[in-house]
Give the backbone structure.
Amino acid sequence: MSKEKSPKKVKKQEKVEVKPEYVQALLETNLSQEIITKAKGELPKEKFLTPYRVAQKYGIKISAAKRLLKILAGEGILERAGGNRRTTIYLPR
């Protein structure tokens, strides 16, 4: 006996419209502009930086310190020198 397979129904993919407010929320950080400005002046004077050292210095969470270091590296103030997937080491330029 041969069984005929019925054709599978193809689900229509809906176009998802991304709202600008959502994109802006992803880009925002929970860091105040005061901390970012202060860090731009003070952190380039350090020998090396890790998220832990930055978190201790400014009294912020380590996840916020990681974001701060990424922001400063993106602006060219710091450069990533090494590390692994858990922690990174940054050097001033």
In short: The first helix runs from residue 20 to 27. The radius of gyration is 23 Å. Residues 22-27 have pLDDT under 50 and may be disordered. The beta strands are 78-83, 88-92.
